[in-house]
Amino acid sequence: MKKSMVLALSCVMIFLNHAECQETSFNAEKAMHELQSTLSDNYAYLHDRERSAEALLAPHKTKLLASKTTKEFRDSAQAYLRTFADPHLNLGPYDEADHSVYPTGSDIFVQFEHDKLMIHDIKSGSDAHIKGLKPGMQVMSVDGQSIELAIKQVTGLTVNQLTQNQRNYAANIALGGKRNQARTLVVYHQGVDKAFNLAASYNSINALKNKAPLSVEVLGDISYVRFNNALGDLNTVDVFKREIKKLHSTKGIIIDLRNTPSGGNTGVAEPILGHFTDKQAIYQLYKVQSQGEPYEQSTMQSAQVTPQAPYLSQPFVVLAGRWTGSMGEGMVIGLNALGAKKVIGAPMADLLGGIKHVKLPYSDSWLEVGFERLYQTNGEYREDFEPHILLKSADIDGQGNDVARQQALAFLTNNIKAL
User: Fold this and answer.
1) Phi and psi at residue 232, in whole multiples of 5°?
2) Residue 226 and residue 243: Cα distance in Å, rounded?
3) CB atoms near residue 363 (< 10 Å)
4) Beta strands in 190-235 (DSSP E)
5) Model pLDDT for residues 47-94, shown as the tens digit of each residue
6) Residue 371 has what DSSP assignment?
């Protein structure tokens, strides 16, 4: 009897092997059609990439259709979706062989400069920071692989098949390593190669779960509020309201959103934003992608905040950077709309849109997809926002300094009377 017949019969027996049964029933063509139609119906950024949706699919199509199991399909689909260069576009479930999700599973920000992969920023407090990695170093390899091979593992494509933006995005994912696994990087600096053995990129962000959702410091006349990746925790609202009692005696406020890579939700963000306005106010705009109605044809809608007591009337500045993600980005543009005197830092993580989760039964997967197109209050796309004082290194610079915080303190100290 043929193996396929044996497997099919075994599926009706009490001692069936789920993985083997799955192999006989999996249909790659249906799974790919389901993925593509879900993107078409739900993804507000589908036709807004550097290459068309069809061009992005083309080099992956053969491998997707050749998938024999749901795992093979998911692995190929993940590589395909990474070529969209959108951190909000993800497919799971994940396993330990998958790459860490960017930017939560990331502590080093890199960009190609004339074919050299250069460090631009290091996440404050991460193992990369503690071990001494700094902007200005050139990354030569990750986990014993060349950068070219690491990028191919992330995207399924060679470097020559990718745009500069796709290469940069893939390189940042590669440096985050595999899920919950330690990494080894070799960097070139001051004429020598040096190896750095780093903890799993998720370690520092996971450690925040046992810490307060935000911290407040009073620095003379300036108060400093730093959010600790907890914009999805409703407790953050209560902690903020309690902690801002310390702010009343100060003459200026720094709001630090550089450690929000995992984003959050409006149920946390809007009540906090409400303390920075004394009237109902719009903080961002959006359009919704829905089946049969592309987002371009949708009505522009507004997201608003309601005033919350106590009202913080002091002048304030906002810090943003490479690990400001999703709702963190929404809070930055919202605080800017509500009257921030300056936004200081680097371009943000560009997690595109408001997301929803869609089940994909044919591949036993789920898709996280941006179905809301988000805008600043001036009508410009959220992802196009850049800080007023733009820095290359928003967390840690080449000398190990937190320049963004230094500049914020200096700006408020020097301008409080004028503001």
Assistant:
1) -105, 5
2) 11
3) 26
4) 192-198, 214-219, 222-227
5) 887 778 889 999 999 999 999 999 999 999 999 999 999 999 999 999
6) E
| Neighbouring C-beta atoms of residue 14, cutoff 10 Å | 4
Strands 145-146 and 138-142: antiparallel
Q: What is the pLDDT of residue 290?
A: 79
CATH number of 147's domain: 2.30.42.10
Q: What is the largest CA-CA distance in the chain?
A: 88
pTM: 0.92
User: Does some domain include residue 1?
Assistant: no
All residues at 6 or more sequence positions from 168 whose CB lies less than 8 Å from its CB, including other chains: 110, 111, 112
The domain boundary residue, chosen from 181, 202, 223: 202
- Lookup result for tokens 């995992």: 262
Cα 382 from Cα 387, distance rounded (Å):
12
Q: Is 90 exceeded by the pLDDT of residue 245?
A: no
Over the Cα atoms of the chain, what is R_g?
Answer: 23
* Six-digit token string for 163: 């745009």
Compute the distance between CA of residue 344 and CA of residue 177 in angstroms, rounded to an integer: 29
Sequence letter at residue 313: S
